[in-house]
Design brief:
mainly alpha, 0% strand, single chain
Length: 76
């Protein structure tokens, strides 16, 4: 009897988690289309390429207030 009760609780929690996951995904899809963080950030904040391989003074490109994300990449 205890096993059936435990199994019922586990299945109920699993089903609730699955429903919550689906509702959460659909809610985000309805708000902003496909949930791509990079696309959302790029559309609301300025993005600039400051170098294509030459040396730069990175301090000259970082504002004194707020947060700045610096991404380094390479074409291989």
């Amino acid at each position: 009897m205890r096993f059936l009760l435990l199994l019922t609780v586990v299945l109920a929690l699993g089903l609730a988690g699955l429903i919550g996951f689906v509702v959460h995904k659909e809610w985000h899809r309805g708000r902003s289309g496909p949930s791509t963080t990079a696309g959302t950030l790029a559309s609301t904040h300025p993005v600039a390429t400051i170098s294509k391989g030459e040396r730069i003074d990175i301090d000259a490109h970082i504002p004194h207030e707020g947060f700045t994300v610096v991404e380094f990449s390479a074409d291989f």
